[in-house]
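Q: Sequence in, structure out?
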Amino acid sequence: MKVVFDALIKFAINYVNGELFKLFKSYIKFVEKYNPLIIIFFCSIYLLTSWGDNWVLTWIQLAALIIIPVIGISSMKESKSPEV
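A: Exactly. Output:
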């Protein structure tokens, strides 16, 4: 039983160090690049599902949908500009 358990541990460590790490690394790059768009998407989904339930929160979400794209687009433009 110990041999099987050790083999599974070695397999898991190799898998984590290899494929899973590459997948996680690409996920992190995607989130760093498109973070404002992800926030806008979930903010708009929440706004649509909670429309009219609480008007104060609805207006806050609506303001966030106006402010976040401006900040996000400017940060995406800064990340694309060449560094000096």
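The chain has a mean pLDDT of 76.
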